[in-house]
Amino acid sequence: MRTRRIELDSRAGHVAIERLPNTLTIRIDSTLRATVNGQLAIKTWEITNRISDEDLYAIATEIQARTDGYRGTNSDIHDYYRELQRFQD
Fold first, then answer.
1. pLDDT in tens, 1-16
2. If DSSP states are collapsed to H, E and C, what string results for the chain?
3. How many whole angstroms separate alpha carbon 73 and alpha carbon 56?
4. What local confidence, expressed as pLDDT, does residue 39 receive?
5. What pTM, to 2 d.p., does this model score?
6. pLDDT digits (tens, 9 = 90+) for 13-48
7. 1: Cβ–Cβ under 8 A, 6 or more apart, which residues?
8. Residue 88: is it exposed, middle or buried by C-beta count within 10 angstroms (0-12/13-18/19+)?
9. How far apart (Å, rounded) are the C-alpha atoms in residues 19 and 72?
10. Domain boundaries in the chain?
11. Are 43 and 66 in contact, with CB atoms under 8 Å apart?
């Protein structure tokens, strides 16, 4: 069994993580609900499924802050990191 797509939602933002079919690519789309000027702020990563744990943790740190609206503790970040690990080989 392999996870193909996960969507995580919080008060400040939304993130969709998916493994693109027939590729080694993981796509991460992060959307902030509201910014200073009232527009949506979108950021996308396309990474290999063989990304290092350190690089994956760095992405999890940014995703957590964007989705939750604040810089979390290690346990907050680790929740997002664990979800990202589902897509690694």
1. 778 899 999 989 999 9
2. CCCCEEEEECCCEEEEEEECCCCCEEEEEEEECCCCCCCCEEEEEEEECCCCHHHHHHHHHHHHHHHHCCCCCHHHHHHHHHHHHCCCC
3. 16
4. 65
5. 0.88
6. 999 999 988 889 999 999 998 766 766 689 999 999
7. none
8. middle
9. 26
10. 5-85
11. yes
- Nearest alpha-carbon partner for 45 in 69, 32, 62, 33: 62
Structure tokens of 78? 């680790």
- Comparing CA positions, the residue from 64, 54, 59 lying closest to residue 32 is 64
Strand order in the sheet with 5-9: 5-9, 13-19, 25-32, 41-48
Q: Alpha-carbon Rg of the chain, whole angstroms?
A: 13
Dihedral of CA 76/33/9/50: which sign? Answer: negative
Please give the backbone phi and psi of residue 36, each rounded to the nearest 5 degrees, phi first. Answer: -55, -40
Contact between 29 and 42 (Cβ < 8 Å): yes
Give the model's pLDDT for residue 27.
Answer: 96
